[in-house]
Specification:
single chain, 176 residues
Length: 176
């Protein structure tokens, strides 16, 4: 099967690299702050803000990867008991609903982010736009991935994650 994500062919785990970097920054700032408090009885003023930004970006950067690889939790009991033709119809309806929902969430996240130019963080005075940009990018990517899942569902039938070979490939690509 051809790669449905040609824009990620050069960096297949781009979302994970961003999430990992943000997580490492968050962890490093927390360790430095705890060490500073313990040994020097003082703390880094901006530690809380940087840790919050790292947490925010690591979370919202990792979710699109999980969404793309269908690694999020799903309740498939009702889907699995349906006959195969109904599964395909149900899959198309769910994909359309996910495209609409992710577009809506992208719009709401953009409204949140665009209002962030006015409000700044207390210590570093970074506009909240840069913090709230993470959900915008996450939901925009999930909208694109939903559209790709929709097209793939029309071409090849329901979700390929029911295929044992797909599960084996998924677990091969992760640390599980």
């Amino acid at each position: 099967m051809p790669n449905p994500y040609p824009f990620l062919s050069r960096i297949p785990k781009a979302e994970l690299y961003v999430a990992g970097f943000a997580f490492v920054v968050m962890l490093a700032v927390i360790v430095v702050n705890v060490t500073s408090r313990y040994f020097f009885s003082t703390s880094v003023l901006s530690a809380e803000e940087v840790a919050y930004m790292g947490f925010n970006w690591s979370t919202f950067a990792a979710v699109p990867y999980l969404y793309r690889t269908r690694g999020l939790i799903a309740v498939e009991f009702f889907f699995d008991i349906l006959p195969r033709p109904l599964q395909r119809s149900f899959s198309v309806i769910v994909d359309i609903a996910l495209i609409a929902a992710n577009m809506w969430f992208t719009w709401l996240a953009w409204l949140l982010a665009s209002g962030g130019w006015i409000r700044k963080t207390p210590v570093l005075e970074i506009p909240y736009f840069w913090i709230n940009l993470a959900p915008v990018l996450a939901f925009a990517l999930m909208t694109i991935y939903s559209a790709v899942h929709f097209v793939e569902g029309l071409r090849h039938g329901p979700d390929p994650s029911h295929d044992p070979e797909h599960d084996a490939k998924l677990y091969e690509d992760t640390a599980l």
